Amino acid sequence: MQCPICAGPLQEIDVAPCYDCGHEPNELDDLKNGEHEYYLFELWANKIVLCDFCDPDFGSYFPRYFGLPDNASTDYPLKLIKKIEAPKTIRDLYCEKCKHRLAFLKFLESARSHNKT
């Protein structure tokens, strides 16, 4: 399988639940130590899991990254669906070039398609 954003190779790794930062090795330690809570959100007709650090920081992404006009608000309309109970490590694919796990890359691809201007 190839990265849906850059078409580069993907490697299988262990990840924490957060789509945004879950690929980072220190996040696996944070998960084991119960340092974060994880939540399922809906945004632009897609689901995304974010931790309690990435959720409030999500507005740091420039609108263009998600296919929005440059002048769009960065107060992205994340709709909380539920808290993830008993979060655990899973396997996912990771793109070294894009620096994200496949779950986030699929979300990004779908968001860009949804937000085409």
Strand order of the largest sheet: 1-5-6
Please give the share of residues in helix. 10-25%
The end-to-end span amounts to: 28 Å
**Mind telling me the C-alpha Rg?**
14 Å
The shape, in one word, is globular
Count of discrete structural domains: 1
- Uncertain stretches of 5 or more adjacent residues: none
Q: In what range is the share of β-strand residues? A: 25-35%
* Mean pLDDT over all positions: 95
Task: Give me the count of strands.
Answer: 6
Please work out how many helical segments DSSP would assign: 3
Give the biggest beta sheet.
3 strands, antiparallel
Please state the structural category: alpha+beta
- Secondary-structure element string: EHEEHEEEH
Report on this model:
This protein is α+β, with helices and mostly antiparallel strands and 117 residues long. It has one domain (10-114). Helices cover 21% and strands 26% of the residues. It has three helices and six strands. It has helices at 25-32, 54-57, 102-114; strands at 10-15, 38-43, 46-51, 79-83, 90-95, 100-101. The chain has a three-stranded antiparallel β-sheet with strand order 1-5-6. Strands 3-2-4 form a three-stranded antiparallel β-sheet. A hairpin with a 4-residue loop joins strand 5 and strand 6 (100-101). The chain starts with 9 loop residues before the first strand and ends with a helix.
